[in-house]
Amino acid sequence: MRRAARSGPPEARLAAARAVWQLTEDAGPLLGVLAEQLTDGGRVREAATAAAGLGPRAAELVPALVAAASTPGASRVIPHLDADVAIAEALWRITGRAEEALRLLAGVLGETGLSWIRWTFVRAARVAARLGDEGRPLVPELEKLLTHPLHTPAAVLALHTIAPGTLDVRAAAGLLLDSAEDDADAATALEALLALGPDALTEDHARRLTALAERDLRVTASGVETTIAATDDRLREQAGQVLRALGAGPTAAGA
After folding, report:
1. Which end of the chain is less packed: N or C, by CB atoms within 10 Å?
2. Which tens digits make up the pLDDT trace of 122-160?
């Protein structure tokens, strides 16, 4: 495996280096492969994600990670922005310092003119949440995401973690239920609703959550036809769990 990590196609080398790390905890081969991939620029997101998994052991990759980030103001496309999000998470997990991660995430979240990068914004918000209190400089950009149903769940989770005092929790709960009902990252919407706690629910919110949990209400609007019903069933089960955990509605009363 060590030999395979030194030569061959990039994917095979990365797989071999990961195997060496998992079996022996020798990060050397993996660090070497990741450094090359970050420098080559072709597989930056994957390399950054792998580096994040190593945590502080990947400290020697910090200069390469910083250098691999895209240039603000340049013509950037989705792969560049997705890579920047992955680099931000890697730098945070490796160094424990937020400055560079904040700069990268702010650059991604500030690309409001690119309406087609919706899932990139979601990923950026999820990484922002991991920064905890140190993510406070991102609050204005995260609040802007609350205007789009797909972005709302991850943005609410991030704001609740970073600066809970900035959230109107009842208004946020209504937005989360909008997202869940519209199949806009519905699972994360329910996760965020649970995080907000029972004080966020009005009677109308409880009624809507009960409808998601107990009625044959088809929510999932996309995906392979044969899996849509199963996805809806999982969503209904998750909604029921949230309903019971929050102590709301008839499901909780009958538990």
Report:
1. C
2. 999 999 999 999 999 999 999 999 999 999 999 999 999
Give yes or no: residues 33 and 137 share one domain.
yes
Whole-prediction pTM value? 0.84
**Residue range 21-50, pLDDT digits in tens:** 888 988 999 999 999 999 987 789 999 999
Same domain flag for 21 and 132: yes
